[in-house]
Structures are given as structure tokens and as C-alpha cells.
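thought: user wants a sequence for this fold. calling inverse folding tool.
action: design(structure=
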């Protein structure tokens, strides 16, 4: 072994870092890092930057300027450069680049309003939808209803919900248990750290029991497991669950269409067009709304973090979208009575 560090090309160094992460991060996370870094590596190759020893503050600044010229969104550029910085920190630990090089990667500030995603499923809309499902016998306990109830009351990621088996539902204790099962196709984003039981009201349990008895297909997946949510072919693919989500959140279920469409002839009611309804919501938007709602109910942030398997920082920055008045009325108002000085 030579004392000199190897002259990694940017692509070689990228692949080495990503391979080192595969036992620590989910496949989806590693793939995200790959697509973020691939842009930088391809730019380096075009600019004749042959080894990582050629990296410098000027290189990083030039790349930022290149991406800004492409008019990328602030949050996108922030994520790309943060990943680049993390990669360079790894190279520092290998001692193949100079110390403190990562500090020269510019991380642009992202305005708070640009971080938040205001298209979440708001609690008033979720309540209206769930009340409609519960009051309409024809749709009570259908797969769309069961999906929305569980997604809203757990705030779980779509991948976690997709990975649930029938055995993971405990009706007696009104909970589901999320399990990391990568060998049979249903890993959790945070792997073993994502395993947890999540409880919900008995009314949700009743919906799930109705779904299982009357609407769940008796099917197994290719690994012989019995999924909680099924199609005629077994465990649903991710896109199927997205369609369920869009179909479950049509506002015309409970009130007049806000887009002046006739629900009987609306093209958005088609399976392939459901995502195009401006008011339908994806699984991620349901998760975002649920997390904000749980905070509004007074759940301590650390409790919400454990229920939805996210860090406090991530919840505060990216998921908790209550506005100033919501925070006052739902979270701080109950403490105002404690301020009475004559008590």
C-alpha cells in the first residue's frame, strides 16, 4: 500500500461513497444521492476535472453558477449541494482531498416559504372526506376509505403502508406494526430504526375490519405473505397506492366541485387521470397534512416524530405547515390560562 492517496476520478469516488452507504441508508435514499451527484460528476467530466484532488472552492462555486443558470428550484439546488458537501466530507475522512474542503461547498439559503409544501391535505378537508366515507354505506370500508383512514391517522410513508401485512394489524389494541422486511421486498426507509407500532382510534379499527371482511382481496404476494392492502394480483405496486390516494381525496366526494366539473362526466375520475385533479392529494401530501394535524392536536413534537419516523428537525422544516394563527389557537392558547396572575 502506498502512502499517497489514490487519484480517484470523480465518478470512481462517487461510486465508492454510494457503495459505502448501502448498508446504512435505504435504496431510495442512495438512488437520490446518485442522481444529485451524477449531475456534478458529469459536469466535472465536461470541464476536464480529472481527479478529486482537483476539487477546490472555485470548482464548487463554478458548479453552483452552472446550476443557477439552469434555473433550478432553490430547494433542489440546496439538496444537490448539501449532498455534494456530505460526499466531500467522506473524501476528507479518506484523506484523498485536503482538510476542510467540504466547508468550501456553498450551501444556498432556502426561504422558509420555499421549503414548505402548501398543497398538503388540510385537516378540514380530511375531516370532511372521512366523515363522508363513514356516513355513506356504499363506500364505507372500501380500499380507498381504508387507505385514507390509515394514512391520515398514522402519517406513515407510502412505502411503510404498502409493506404492512394482515398480521401487522392488531384490532384488539387498535394499532399497526411497521416492520423492515427487505429480503421480501418491503424495506422501511430508515430500516430497523423505522420499526414501530402506531396506534389509532377505535373508529379506524372498525373501518379496517370492514375492509378486511368485505373488500380485501384474499391474495398473497410473491413471497407468500398476506398483505393488508391487496389487489387481485397480491401486494399493490406503489403507483396503485398513489391512485388510491388521488381517488380517495376528490373534494367532490363531500361537496360541490371547486373546479366547476360535473362529477358524473369529469375526466379526472378516470384511473389514469386521477392525479390531474387540482384538489386530489398524493400520499406524501396526506402525510404532510397528518403531521401538521397531529401537532395541532397538541401531540408533543417528539411523539409525532416517533409515530411518523422522522427527526424533529425534518418535521419542523418540511412537514409541519401550520400557519401563525393555527399555532396560536391550537398549540399555545391552552397555556394562556396559566398566565392568570390571580390564580
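)
observation: tool returned 343 residues.
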Amino acid at each position: 500500500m502506498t502512502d499517497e492517496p489514490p487519484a480517484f476520478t470523480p465518478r470512481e469516488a462517487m461510486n465508492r461513497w454510494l457503495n459505502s452507504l448501502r448498508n446504512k441508508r435505504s435504496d431510495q435514499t442512495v438512488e437520490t444521492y446518485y442522481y444529485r451527484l451524477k449531475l456534478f460528476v458529469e459536469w466535472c467530466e465536461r470541464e476536464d476535472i480529472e481527479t478529486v484532488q482537483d476539487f477546490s472552492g472555485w470548482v464548487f462555486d463554478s458548479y453552483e453558477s452552472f446550476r443557477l443558470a439552469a434555473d433550478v428550484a432553490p430547494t433542489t439546488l440546496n439538496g444537490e449541494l448539501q449532498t455534494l458537501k456530505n460526499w466531500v466530507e467522506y473524501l476528507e475522512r479518506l484523506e484523498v482531498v485536503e482538510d476542510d474542503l467540504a466547508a468550501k461547498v456553498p450551501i444556498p439559503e432556502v426561504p422558509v416559504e420555499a421549503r414548505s409544501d402548501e398543497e398538503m391535505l388540510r385537516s378540514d378537508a380530511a375531516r370532511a372526506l372521512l366523515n363522508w366515507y363513514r356516513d355513506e354505506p356504499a363506500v364505507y370500508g372500501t380500499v380507498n376509505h381504508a387507505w385514507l383512514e390509515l394514512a391520515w391517522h398514522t402519517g406513515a410513508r407510502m412505502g411503510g403502508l404498502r409493506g404492512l401485512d394482515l398480521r401487522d394489524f392488531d384490532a384488539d389494541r387498535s394499532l399497526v406494526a411497521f416492520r423492515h422486511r427487505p429480503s421480501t421486498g418491503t424495506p422501511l426507509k430508515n430500516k430497523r430504526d423505522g420499526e414501530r407500532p402506531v396506534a389509532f382510534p377505535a373508529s379506524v379499527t372498525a373501518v379496517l375490519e370492514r375492509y378486511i371482511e368485505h373488500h380485501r382481496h384474499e391474495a398473497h404476494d410473491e413471497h407468500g405473505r398476506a398483505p393488508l392492502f391487496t389487489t387481485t394480483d397480491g401486494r399493490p405496486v406503489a403507483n396503485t397506492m398513489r391512485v388510491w390516494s388521488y381517488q380517495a381525496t376528490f373534494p367532490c366526494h363531500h361537496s360541490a366541485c371547486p373546479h366547476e366539473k360535473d362529477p358524473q362526466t369529469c375526466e379526472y375520475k378516470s384511473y389514469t387521470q386521477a392525479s390531474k385533479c387540482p384538489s386530489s392529494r398524493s400520499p406524501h401530501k396526506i402525510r404532510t397534512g397528518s403531521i401538521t394535524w397531529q401537532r395541532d392536536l397538541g401531540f408533543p413534537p417528539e411523539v409525532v416524530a416517533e409515530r411518523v419516523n422522522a427527526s424533529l428537525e425534518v418535521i419542523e422544516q418540511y412537514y409541519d405547515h401550520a400557519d401563525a394563527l393555527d399555532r396560536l389557537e391550537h398549540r399555545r392558547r391552552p397555556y394562556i390560562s396559566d398566565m392568570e396572575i390571580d390564580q
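thought: summarizing for user.
answer: Here is the designed sequence. The CA atoms of residues 80 and 89 lie 14 Å apart.
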